[in-house]
């Protein structure tokens, strides 16, 4: 079966849906990374100008910190799908081609396992069922569970802590999805996809 027919057949299956969903998410992450980088640049520039003029804005520092956090997790998720995450090749460089393939599958399985575990921990931490059972009353929920996530606010922006922390479950779900997509390709169910708009995803551009 040719690559075109394989991709077409996979695209109509649940596995193909996962690949398409991963590719769509990757495009969203690309836009988000660009947006957060622009936001971070603007915040730093504004901070420099206001401090130089003697009128510093107190909430800029915290805004920049959260922009970096969201940028880092969003970028890490995209890098997972692009296979630009960190790896140690000391062992795989000495393995035969089949051993390299097995090692790659095992490594991808660990990525999926990490994503699933993190998703589970975020579910326990944010406890959407518990907060819903409490009628979305943050104080009532905190009194019952001693989980003060929904009652806390950031220091200077005064934003709800749970809203800022949403990047964690979003990252957990996205890295799981990208990990499964990578696993499908590593198992040779479908050929690897070329992701346009990411020149660093290709070895020639990265070298």
Automatic annotation (TrEMBL):
<feature type="transmembrane region" description="Helical">
    <location>
        <begin position="162"/>
        <end position="184"/>
    </location>
</feature>
<keyword id="KW-0997">Cell inner membrane</keyword>
<keyword id="KW-1003">Cell membrane</keyword>
<comment type="function">
    <text>Part of the tripartite ATP-independent periplasmic (TRAP) transport system.</text>
</comment>
<dbReference type="InterPro" id="IPR055348">
    <property type="entry name" value="DctQ"/>
</dbReference>
<dbReference type="GO" id="GO:0005886">
    <property type="term" value="C:plasma membrane"/>
</dbReference>
<dbReference type="GO" id="GO:0022857">
    <property type="term" value="F:transmembrane transporter activity"/>
</dbReference>
<keyword id="KW-1133">Transmembrane helix</keyword>
<feature type="domain" description="Tripartite ATP-independent periplasmic transporters DctQ component">
    <location>
        <begin position="41"/>
        <end position="187"/>
    </location>
</feature>
<feature type="transmembrane region" description="Helical">
    <location>
        <begin position="64"/>
        <end position="84"/>
    </location>
</feature>
<feature type="transmembrane region" description="Helical">
    <location>
        <begin position="31"/>
        <end position="52"/>
    </location>
</feature>
<dbReference type="GO" id="GO:0015740">
    <property type="term" value="P:C4-dicarboxylate transport"/>
</dbReference>
<dbReference type="InterPro" id="IPR007387">
    <property type="entry name" value="TRAP_DctQ"/>
</dbReference>
<comment type="subunit">
    <text>The complex comprises the extracytoplasmic solute receptor protein and the two transmembrane proteins.</text>
</comment>
<comment type="similarity">
    <text>Belongs to the TRAP transporter small permease family.</text>
</comment>
<keyword id="KW-0813">Transport</keyword>
<feature type="transmembrane region" description="Helical">
    <location>
        <begin position="105"/>
        <end position="126"/>
    </location>
</feature>
<keyword id="KW-0812">Transmembrane</keyword>
<keyword id="KW-0472">Membrane</keyword>
<dbReference type="Pfam" id="PF04290">
    <property type="entry name" value="DctQ"/>
</dbReference>
<protein>
    <recommendedName>
        <fullName>TRAP transporter small permease protein</fullName>
    </recommendedName>
</protein>
């Amino acid at each position: 079966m040719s690559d075109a027919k394989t991709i077409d057949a996979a695209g109509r299956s649940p596995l193909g849906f996962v690949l398409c969903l991963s590719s769509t998410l990757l495009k969203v992450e690309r836009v988000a990374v660009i947006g957060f980088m622009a936001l971070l640049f603007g915040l730093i520039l504004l901070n420099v100008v206001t401090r130089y003029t003697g009128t510093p804005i107190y909430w800029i520092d915290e805004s920049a910190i959260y922009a970096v956090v969201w940028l880092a997790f969003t970028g890490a998720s995209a890098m997972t799908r692009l296979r630009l995450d960190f790896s140690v090749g000391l062992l795989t460089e000495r393995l035969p081609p089949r051993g390299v393939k097995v090692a790659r599958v095992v490594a991808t399985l660990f990525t999926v396992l990490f994503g699933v575990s993190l998703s589970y921990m975020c579910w326990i931490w944010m406890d959407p069922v518990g907060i819903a059972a409490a009628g979305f009353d943050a104080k009532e929920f905190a009194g019952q569970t001693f989980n003060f996530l929904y009652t806390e606010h950031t220091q200077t922006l005064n934003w709800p802590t749970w809203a800022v922390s949403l990047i964690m479950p979003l990252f957990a779900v996205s890295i799981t999805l990208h990990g499964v997509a990578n696993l499908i390709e590593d198992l040779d169910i479908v050929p690897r996809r070329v992701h346009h708009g990411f020149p660093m995803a290709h070895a020639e551009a990265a070298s």
